[in-house]
Amino acid sequence: MKHFIVFDLDGTLLNTLPDIATAMNKVLFRFGMPQHAMESYKQFTGNGAKVLTQRVLAGQEEMENHVYPAYLNEYARNSRVKTVPYEGMVDTLKALANKGIRLIVYSNKDNPEAQDVIKHYFPDIPFAAVVGSLPDVPLKPDPTALQDLLAELELEPEDGLYVGDTMMDMACAKAVGIYAVGALWGFQSKEQLEEARPNALIEEVPELLNIVKERFRAS
User: Fold this and answer.
1) Same domain as 153, residue 129
2) Which residues contact 166 (CB under 8 A, 6 or more apart)?
3) pTM of the complete model
4) Domain CATH number, residue 142
């Protein structure tokens, strides 16, 4: 039996919101368009950069082909300014790895950026896999990419946990058959996560170790 945990990235492992909002607002300002409050970006994120752009531009969709590439460029140059791991995350990941639990990152962030940001912020964590959005592969909550990844790693859904901060993450976990843990420190509210009916909700990162002990019978 191989125990594993799948983590979402933005809003789960890392608080990326300040850099996402700043990069997009800079681009919007450059094009003479209205900017958005930081809090609003909690509802804009989660489905990749293209959908982020579409949500930001509601009513001005004709600007997408200009704003989208400009945002990708701006964010690539300034994605590590205010982004930080959530409190307790590094120590918790190390503790999980020391228990022999396989750690996986599964994100709708563009795959090259997901790979780079994990290497930057978690250089000492031995992730078994880091997967972001790929061309011609549907984004989560579609379960296809995650199902394929688990098959490649020879992992069974019932042996794992899925930790995420959005309703979409919970839907993806359920579609694959993985125990769904909602992270209340992330971008969506408790009410939104409760609506998605996760198997468990946790308010602070170290609480994940209690879930692991219960589910995996780890010492």
Assistant:
1) yes
2) 8, 11, 46, 186, 187, 188, 192, 193
3) 0.93
4) 3.40.50.1000
